[in-house]
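*** Residues and shapes ***
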Amino acid sequence: MAIDKALEDKLFKLSGGEEFRDEVWGQTTSQLEDRIASLQKQLDESEEHKKENVALRDAKYEVSKIEGPYNDVKKAVKIKTKFLIELIKDKGGV
């Protein structure tokens, strides 16, 4: 069974992707499963670090404050448009 070419291309676009492929290519199923567990542990540690990152949290808060008015307009237009469509339907249109 061959590895999907598109997936391999994505892997090669990652920094160190070709080296990773070469490193794991000859490993046993058990070694590959251990590698998956190791990668998942790295991801968990990264996500935990992200949660604890005060600078990131503060930046996200600032972005949400700045975006707020734009999101309000978007939400209002969406609701009003739906209302108008229902009103048109009620009046026999569309």
About this structure: The helical segments are 5-13, 17-24, 29-52, 54-90.
